[in-house]
Amino acid sequence: MNDAHVVDPHMVQSLRALEQAGEPGLLRELIDSFLGTAPGRLARLSALAETGEAAELEAEAHALAGSCGAIGLEQLRLLCRQAEMDAASTGTVDARTVAALGPAFERAREELLRIREQTDGASP
């Protein structure tokens, strides 16, 4: 997991390029949306892992992985994909994967806030 970026710089660069091409505020909107929804999704994932509801767990992990991928959160996306694959193949998720989600989200949150601050500072 250490090889993956917390936030993929190429994805951030691509999103900034879209902003310059006529979508002002896109990156900030994506960051704010993610930060607004991810904590609830992570709590739901954790609860589903405890109750063993594999199909719902797989779906929630898939949705969160997609959200992570949309803004380049590689470490968190990989953990979500692992949870999704575990739920699909075994009906459960390894406790280490679930435990790693919180710290991975905190690292991502810190980096997203830093990026958002930079983005705000670059606004005219």
From TrEMBL:
UniProt cross-references to SUPFAM superfamilies, sorted A to Z: Histidine-containing phosphotransfer domain, HPT domain
Gene3D superfamilies: HPT domain
Superkingdom as given in the UniProt entry: Bacteria
GO biological process: phosphorelay signal transduction system
Entry keyword set: Phosphoprotein
GO terms of molecular function: protein kinase activity
PTM sites of type Phosphohistidine: H62
All copies of domain HPt, residue ranges: 23-122
PROSITE patterns documented for this protein: HPT
Protein's name in the database: Hpt domain-containing protein
Natural source organism: Archangium gephyra
Lineage, broadest ranks: Bacteria, Pseudomonadati, Myxococcota, Myxococcia, Myxococcales
